Amino acid sequence: MSAAMAGSAGTASAGTSGGTRDGPVDDEGCPPPCTSGSSSSRTSMPMASERVTSLNTCALSFNISFGLGSSGSTRVSNELGAGRSQAALLAVCVVIFMATIGGLFLGLTMILFRRTWGYLFSNEEEVVKYVATMMPLLALSNFLDGIQCALSGIVRGCGWQKIGAFVNLGAYYLVGIPFAVFFALVLHIGGKGLWMGIICALFVQVLSLLIITVRTSWEKEAKKATDTEHAI
């Protein structure tokens, strides 16, 4: 114990008296700055930029789809309230057709400009290359999301909010999250795996809402809407 204390005291006195210090020093006797934190931050910054760029691209395309779904919801509800079942069916067909064409156009645009799209958000080559690999998945999810927004607007216009809630919960919590965990953590695909889970959820959501819409009797829905309006 005393030897250790003496040794530590000697080391301290040597350090205070201008003796040598452990590790490299510069010309003025100061240690070099620590670079481990800066290197990790430089590594994490491109990864964060990659995720943010993908999310911003998805949000940009979603605004277009959401606007189309909102207009379809208003149109369908107005036609059903007026008792015009055929006009409501026509509005449904038009909004689905426009969502399909718009999704195809945006998807093809994303694929064609996938190698330069990343420069809109960052100058990092790593970010641009990662966005280029993600763009086909983003294009597919945008296409499905456009149709989903149109069908969700139709569901809202018909007053089927409860059905839409069950479909959304089942698609994302029972299908999307498990598949995202499987792709990302089990198959080690990473961020692409998370997005593939979202695509699986969107596929189930679109398929479920499409089946509900196709099997709908628009004459009965129009009669139900007019009866409700007269009752009020």
Description:
Residues 1-46 are annotated as: Disordered. It holds the Pfam family MatE. α3 (85-112) crosses α7 and α4 (125-158) packs parallel to α6. This protein has seven helices and no strands. It has one domain. It is mostly helical and 232 residues long. The longest helix is centred in the N-terminal third of the chain and has 46 residues, at 36-81. The chain is 81% helix and 0% strand.
Short précis:
The chain has helices at residues 2-16, 36-81, 85-112, 125-158, 161-186, 191-214, 218-231. The chain has 232 residues and is an all-alpha fold. It has one domain (63-231).
Keywords for this entry:
81% helix; mainly alpha; disordered N terminus; 232 residues
Order of helices and strands: HHHHHHH
Which consecutive residue ranges, at least 5 long each, have pLDDT under 50? 1-26, 33-44
Helicity, in percent? over 70%
Structural class: mainly alpha
Over all CA atoms, what is the radius of gyration?
29 Å
Count all strands and give the number.
0
- Supply the number of helical segments: 7
| Count of distinct structural domains | 1
Alpha-carbon distance between the termini? Answer: 92 Å
Main β-sheet, in a few words? Answer: none
Measured by DSSP, the beta-strand proportion falls in: under 5%
Average pLDDT, rounded to a whole number, is 80
Shape: elongated
